[in-house]
Amino acid sequence: MLEGILPLWKEKGMTSHDCVFRLRKILGMKRIGHTGTLDPDVEGVLPICLGRATKAAEYVTDMGKTYEAVVSIGRSTETEDASGVTVEQNLAPKRFTAAQILDVLQSLTGEITQIPPMYSAVKVNGKRLYEYARQGQSVERPSRKVLIREISLLSGGQLFEGTEVELRIRVVCGKGTYIRTLAVQIGEKLGYPAHMASLVRTASGPFRAEDCLTLSEVEQQRDRGILEAALLPVERALSEFPSVPADDGLLPKILNGQVLSAHPLLSAHPRIVFYDGSRAVAVYRRHPEKNGLMKPEKMFGMAEDKR
Fold it and tell me: For the whole model, what pTM was predicted?
């Protein structure tokens, strides 16, 4: 049975669920989970969790992401990306300096407020927004705070001119950020309608583009019996949490999932990971009801795997 994290390069035209469906057929296993959806028009890094690594999928989903996007200034769409119907268009000649654009990007760095697009999977009253949108309905969407750690201008030159101006940017951001909404916000600050012309996710947490295989490469390596070498250990998904060695006296209690006295590191961190050598055995967090204690959130040790 395969086990670990498969950094997949999701190609355009597929949903994240399509990728999981294909992988289940290629690998002949059911215990597979993806780590957050990518729209069909978006390509890029999609870590796939196999075997016991599926327990860590939510941690990868919560990690920061890096994207490269093309923002088109001059036209907005109902989906905020290139696939949508045009909502507003302004074909007047436009002229922006690099300094103007950098000022706008700086103003959108840090914690910002976004309103999720109608064509998104966010739920309102138990129903996804895209379901309302497909029925021609518009509902009030709750705003959310997201973290933009960095926006870089990748396009060269000091002057950007035209009726529809394209800017290439790199965005390092936290969970829940909509890059297409960010494209619209950039346009608003420049005074024009805008949309996201294209998007590539170049990193998801510690998983990078250079780590990735396409579905066809996965199939080829599986047939040649060398796919295991491409898998990354589940511990990579836990790298953002402090690691604590489980000594011989503590290890049996951890493997049995016991509630324990809270570790001092939990005063500054939401979670810690106990290790038996180089192998993660459990993620612990503060007990939500019992002060001074901690409880397991995820178990990766042998005791649970045998139950």
Answer: 0.89
